[in-house]
Structure formats: C-alpha cells, structure tokens
Amino acid sequence: MKSRASGSYVLLIDLEKTQNISVGALGELRFDQGSYAYVGSALNGVESRVRYHLRKGKRPHWHIDYLLERARIESVLICRSIDRLECRIARELGAEATPVNGFGCSDCHCVSHLFFGATTKVAGEAIARATTATFTLLSSAQLRHNETGYMPFLEPATSGRRAGDPL
C-alpha cells in the first residue's frame, strides 16, 4: 500500500563539477560544483514525489528535473504536514545559503526554491525555524536501496524528528 501523506521535502543534492545546464524556460544556468538544497511539496503524496525525483531517465517536467539529470540526491528531509510549508522553508534556507534566482518557484513569489551551499544541518535548521512539524531524514543508503520501490519508512506511523532536534 502506498502512502498518500501530504508534506514538504528538501532534497540535498551534490553536483560533482561546475557546468552550464539548460533549465527549461529559465534557459541556460551556470551551476557551481557543490551542494544544493531544493525545497518542494507534495500535498497528494510526498512518498510518490520523492520516488519520482529519484527515478532516472524521466522526461523533465519541473526545473529540478534538469539539474537532477546531472546531479545526485544525497539525502532527503521529509516534513509531514497538511500545510504547504515549502515557501516558509525556502525563505529560511535563503537566510543561510545562496538562492539560485527563479529556480523552482514559478508558482509562488519566492526568490528561489534551490539553494547553493546548503547542508543537511542547515536544511534541518531551516525546517525547525519554519514549522514545529516532525520530519524524517532519509540517508543516501536508504535512497539508493529504495530508488524505485516502496518506502515504508515514509508512512505516517514512522516516528520522525521534531523540528529543532539535532540531526
């Protein structure tokens, strides 16, 4: 049985080398080597959305799909909530990391939903400042093991961290 839990998430991404990437309507953007954090939401199934981002060889739909063709998801923070928290989390991340202007935010008024130089710790702290909802950290090992399969640890019954708990 697949989970239909609502929530927001932060993808922690590693780009191995500096490169220019064509990103749909945004055109060609320069991405420096390093770590990025992308904030999204899935109010009709956060598990399905994370699994979508993990898939290889998909046709790009969102801005993040273009980056993920060249980069690797290292870990994911899942924040379960019926509220759409992605913009609050993005604002908090923007205080600690460098926004990639216009990326991933064509449906809102945020500066960006992608941030350069963000770590798991920085992302967790951003969630803690944005909400008191619990969150779950999925490691790179868990992600590799579950790239196409069911992710039982995303079920609502799974205990998560309270925002503000140490990572």
Overview of the structural elements:
The protein is α+β, with helices and mostly antiparallel strands and 167 residues long. Helix content is 25%, strand content 28%. The chain has helices spanning 46-54, 63-68, 86-94, 120-130, 140-145, and strands at residues 7-15, 19-22, 28-31, 34-42, 72-80, 98-99, 114-116, 134-138, 161-162. It is built from five helices and nine strands, in the order E-E-E-E-H-H-E-H-E-E-H-E-H-E. The two termini are 29 Å apart. The model is unreliable at 152-159 (pLDDT under 50). A seven-stranded antiparallel sheet has the order 6-7-4-1-5-8-9. The protein has a two-stranded antiparallel sheet with strand order 2-3. The chain has one domain. It is globular, with a radius of gyration of 15 Å.
Task: Give a quick rundown of the structure.
With 167 residues, the chain is an alpha+beta fold.
Structural class: alpha+beta
Shape: globular
Biggest sheet features: 7 strands, antiparallel
Number of helices: 5
What is the alpha-carbon Rg in Å? Answer: 15 Å
- Helical amount: 10-25%
| Tally of strands | 9
Output mean pLDDT.
Answer: 85
Summarize the helix and strand pattern as letters. Answer: EEEEHHEHEEHEHE
Distance between the termini: 29 Å
